[in-house]
Amino acid sequence: MRISVLTSGGDAPGMNAAIRAVVRRGISRGADVFGIYRGYDGLLDGEINRMNLSSVADIIHRGGTILHTARSERFMRPEGQDLGAARIRGAGIDGLVVIGGEGSFRGMIELEKRGVRTIGVPGTIDNDIWGTDYSIGFDTAVNTGVEAVNRLRDTATSHERIFVVEVMGRKAGFLALAVGVAGGAESIMIPEIPLSVEEVCARLERGIARGKKHSIIVVAEGAASGLEVGQKIEKCMGTEVRVTVLGHVQRGGTPTAFDRLLASRMGAKAVDLLLEGKSGLVLGIHGDTIVANPAEEVVSKQKEIDRELYEMAEDLAR
Ligand code: F6P
Questions:
Q1: Could you read off the pLDDT of 88-118 as tens digits, one per residue?
Q2: Which partner for 274 in 25, 95, 126, 191 could form a disulfide, CB atoms 3.0-4.6 Å apart?
Q3: Does residue 318 have a pLDDT over 90?
Q4: What fold does the segment set 2-137+255-300 form as a domain?
Q5: 143 pLDDT band (50/70/90 cuts)?
Q6: What are phi and psi of 33, to 5 degrees?
Q7: Which of 106, 170, 303 for mutating ligand 1's site (highest number of atoms within 8 Å of CB)?
């Protein structure tokens, strides 16, 4: 059997560990493994190369993706999807592992409709994919965000300042919620649970009345602009506020052990499923069990935010 692997959409720490697992499990089980470069864009351009055991040496600890990635406009059109499927058939490839987020799985579904056997592996720092507790890269991004908050807390304490920290996550608040809870933020603004700046200010006032000298407000990029929130807080509190936008810093860095483990297990499982003749599935983890859900279900359902965790964070931030 000839199988292939690509990474698509925003990169995430741990993608390399997943690629390594696909290549090495595939070769161990007697398959020929091919890497497709630059996501679906590279597929359309025929950038498909045979990989061997050493192609993935020394990458388990590296952030980013050695296969590179893209958000392909061309592949969103039916003509692009036809060409993509033709490229895979032309290379004599029987199966494809797609490592990415929801948009990548939508593309994968189109290839499946055109006869390509596919398995999806969730890789995104946003952790917004239905059917999995965790996606590859989330744990590393949470740790990066918390490390940043720790550092900001040092200077916030020294200057007795309010800091607003804007966290990535696209339209979802999973990353911001985790960073906010683990970083001990005073308020967490996420798109799923509305919280007005007025309420944030009221909490800040209560904190100051109790003797709090500094505060950290975590804002998910999908909820509001950190800069605007900072300006509004300056107005309502009548004091200076500093804003830090973490941005792409959260997408880089060496993956945590958790992400490497998750990526290794999912990459190997994706190969096993392809070799068993399965297709059209996206992997996930529930508790400690790797599961596989129909790709159509994964892209059509929305992952729910943990409201209990959010409410707990409010109690703990008092
Ligand atoms: O999906 C991952 C992510 O980092 C989001 O959190 C963010 O909104 C987006 O990608 C940024 O995309 P780009 O790298 O294209 O600016």
A1: 999 999 999 999 999 999 999 999 999 999 9
A2: 95
A3: no
A4: Rossmann fold (3.40.50)
A5: very high
A6: -115, 135
A7: 170
Q: What's residue 30's pLDDT?
A: 98
Q: How far apart are CA 175 and CA 255, in angstroms?
A: 16
The sheet that has 117-122: what strands, in order across it? 48-51, 32-36, 2-7, 95-100, 117-122, 281-286, 289-294
- Indicate the pTM of the whole model: 0.98
Name the burial class of residue 45, with classes exposed (0-12), middle (13-18) and buried (19+) by CB atoms within 10 angstroms of its CB.
Answer: middle
CB of 222 shorter than 6 A to ligand 1: no
In single-letter form, the type of residue at position 141 comes to A
Q: What is the pLDDT of residue 16?
A: 98
Q: Per CATH, the architecture of 140-251 is what?
A: 3-Layer(aba) Sandwich (3.40)
Please tell me if the CB atom of residue 265 comes closer than 6 angstroms to any atom of ligand 1: no
Comparing CA positions, the residue from 89, 107, 85, 88 lying closest to residue 98 is 107
Angle (CA) 72 77 79, round 5°? 115
User: Sign of torsion, CA 236 234 224 199?
Assistant: negative
Residue 286, pLDDT score: 98
In the chain, how many H helices and how many E strands? Answer: 11, 11
